[in-house]
Structure formats: structure tokens, C-alpha cells
């Protein structure tokens, strides 16, 4: 399943290696289906950003899923969502996400707030372990991938799993056309 990674990258079962995960991610593992296969692998923290990692490992951008956090409000109620999209696309925040959240205006969460409220490091934020009241919107193109690399919550590692398993994560909503091609 994880044939997207070069043979020089050694993966390990994420559940057995909490040192490769942020605390919120480790805590969330107990709520994941037992048969969900999560593999983790260490990286140089300087490679945490998608383009740097794909260049260094020779990965295809179609196998990297980015997580962007967005927020908007309606009638004084803030609505937050994590949008999981392939690196070949970008979340359609101004139209699709705004409509899904039913807000007048939707914007990217500032970095300090995103890291503070998620408990994850910038460049490592992923869909596992996010606050339970945040929506997790996943573009259907992510689910169609045989394997994708996602954030582990820290810059020094990544998680790889099947796109189908991304759809099985707690709270995930699979959305057609959540993203637009770039």
C-alpha cells in the first residue's frame, strides 16, 4: 500500500511509535478503527513543508495531502474546519468551504492560532487529533489515492495511509470538489 515512498524510507507502525507523533495525535489513536493502518516515518524538520518533502524524497504531489485550517462565523458563532486536499490542488475556501460552513466570510486561521488550538506544529498539522468540534472536510480526490502522506502533528515526521483510510477517520466528511486544481 505504501509503495509511494522510496525504498530508502523506513516506515513503522504509528501506534507503536508515539515519539513520532504530537500528543493530540497519540491521544486520538485510541479512537481509530483497529484495522486502520497508519505508518509513520521520521524526516528532517526542514523538509516538513510539502514541496521540500516531495522534492527530497522524489514523491508525486498527488500523494501528499495538505491540511489547512479555516474559520468563519455566522450570527456570532465561529465555525472551524480542517480541509484536507491534495498538494496538486487548493481548498476552495471562498466558495465551496464558505458554503459548507454556512458563513459569510471564511479565511485561513493564523499560524499561531492554528498551532495553539490544534496542539500541532506548523508544517505538521494533520486530520488526526484535531479538536472534536472542528469539522474535517476531505476532498474526494484524497480518498481516491492508494496512499497519501499527511501530517503527524510534528515537523519531524509524517504519516502515510490509504486514501480510503483517511475517509474512515473519526469526524471526516468526504466532499466532492472541496478543492480546485492549481
UniProtKB/TrEMBL annotation:
Residues 45-169 form the YbaK/aminoacyl-tRNA synthetase-associated domain. It comes from the Bacteria. SUPFAM superfamilies: YbaK/ProRS associated domain. This is YbaK/EbsC family protein. It comes from Brevibacterium samyangense.
